[in-house]
Specification:
Oligomer: single chain
Structural class: alpha+beta
Helix content: 25-40%
Strand order of the largest sheet: 3-2-1-5
Distance between the termini: 37 Å
Number of strands: 8
Radius of gyration: 19 Å
């Protein structure tokens, strides 16, 4: 009889890890695949969406190949302040994945702070103006990636992934 288990995936900055855990809490199998971070300019950090996806597929394939297990569920923890757009029609990524540690929106945040908007932003979002948060990353994508700009104006379909 197959052993019931769950998969836990941790998709992080340097790698994607997966654990196959029995219902008793025992780790049955593990897998890990590296991810590559690119630093195109000082303070910028990004990853290729295809690389993130490939690492997740790899670890899931390794874990799913574990004999005599019945996978009941999958839980995912990811880079929560990263920003990535996907094209709805093609499923292809639009631009880079601007990862949590990227500071490319520092100038935008400083400008909003200098214009006196920090209090309103904190009241609405519960967050301060910090380039590590994803809102500035979204704005950067919409302003600098042509396909993302088109999606924003309704001439192409995108959604966050």
């Amino acid at each position: 009889m197959a052993r019931p288990a769950v998969i836990a995936i941790d998709q992080g900055t340097t790698n994607t890890k997966a654990l196959l855990v029995g219902l008793d809490g025992a780790v049955i199998a593990t897998a890990s695949a590296p991810t590559q971070t690119h630093y195109p300019k000082a303070g910028w950090a990004e990853q290729a969406a295809q690389g993130i996806w490939a690492s997740a597929v790899q670890v899931l394939g390794e874990i799913a190949a574990t004999p005599d297990t019945d996978i009941l569920a999958i839980g995912i923890s990811n880079q929560r302040e990263s920003a990535l757009l996907w094209d709805v029609e093609s499923g292809a990524p639009v631009g880079p994945c601007v990862i949590w540690q990227c500071r490319r929106s520092a100038e935008l945040c400083a400008g909003l702070r200098d214009a006196g908007h920090e209090g309103a932003i904190r009241a609405k979002s519960g967050l301060g103006l910090d380039p590590l948060f994803s809102a500035g990353k979204w704005r950067w994508l919409f302003e600098h990636v042509p396909q993302a700009r088109a999606a924003r104006t309704g001439s192409a379909a995108c959604r966050n992934g």
